[in-house]
Amino acid sequence: NVDKNVLLYLEGISVSFDGFKAINDLNLYINDGELRCIIGPNGAGKTTMMDIITGKTRPDTGAAWFGQTINLLDMDEPAIAQAGIGRKFQKPTVFEFLTVFENLELAMAGDRAVLKILGARINGEQRDRLDEVLELIGLKELPHMRAGSLSHGQKQWLEIGMLLMQQPRLLLVDEPVAGMTHQEMDRTAELLTSLAGKHSVVVVEHDMDFVRSLAGKDRTVTVLHQGSVLAEGRMEQVQNNRKVVEVYLGE
Ligand code: ADP
Fold it and tell me: What is the mean pLDDT of the chain?
């Protein structure tokens, strides 16, 4: 009985490590096309939550659905990626010795990488998508730059671009602006907001200024604490919530 607009549905999820409940009866609903920021102090369970969504960690109890029909708990990591969930880890993992263009080309080949090595070319439609992604990530002028020569921010954007080549329906992004300059942060906020609508985007982030700029006035922010949702709502409500203030002051 899932709302049609819900793309990611987690209900009653719990997981323990050696008797310690890292996730404790977590409920999370992400709408199709939504950009959601998830914040929470260290140890709140943010990484574990992402691991559950991507199939890296199996919960002890609960339900996890993607769209109306895809039961995430029945699937392994590759199958979940294939179903349209892309994850960007904090550290960029681009191929430094390849160019920007080649990185995107490889990302598109996906598990057909072997074909690519054997000389298969991307077709016209794929080339259009690659150009679109280059534009989106702000690297249109630098397709032949070696990825190793890019700035930290540009590497992060390239990696987001690599995920986009697979046309995911849901993108999970882990602390994208760690180590970025202010200018790069602004550009990243623009990039992530421009993805919303076409994709659902879940951003786990520590930097409150960045969360504020991403969430704006209207988007929902979720605060995790001790493995469950402590508060949820607009940034303005959430940051004035007494429980949230206490948790952050205690950090
Ligand atoms: P966050 O990403 O919000 O900092 P985590 O999801 O990394 O939080 O961790 C939540 C809690 O679960 C922490 O107390 C952490 O120590 C614990 N934890 C996470 N993964 C494991 C694991 N594989 N084994 C034991 N404890 C873990």
Answer: 91
Q: What secondary structure does DSSP assign to 3-62, as a single string?
A: -TTEEEEEEEEEEEETTEEEEEEEEEEEETT-EEEEE--TTSSHHHHHHHHTTSS--SEE
Q: Decide if 79 contacts 85 (C-beta within 8 A).
A: no
Q: What is the DSSP letter of 70?
A: E
Q: What is the dihedral of CA 38, 186, 190, 10, to 10 degrees?
A: -10
Domain at 36-44+84-249, CATH from 3.40.50.300, 2.40.128.110, 2.30.110.10, 3.40.50.720: 3.40.50.300
Give distance in angstroms: CA of 111 to centre of ligand 1: 30
Domain spans, the chain: 36-44+84-249
Name the amino acid, one letter, at 43.
G
**Binding-site residues, ligand 1, Cβ < 6 A:** 17, 22, 40, 42-48
How many Å lie between the centroid of ligand 1 and the Cα of residue 57?
A: 11
Whether this model's pTM surpasses 0.80: yes
- Token pair recorded at residue 17: 């490590």
* ipTM associated with this complex: 0.95
pLDDT digits (tens, 9 = 90+) for 74-108: 999 999 999 999 999 888 789 999 899 989 988 88
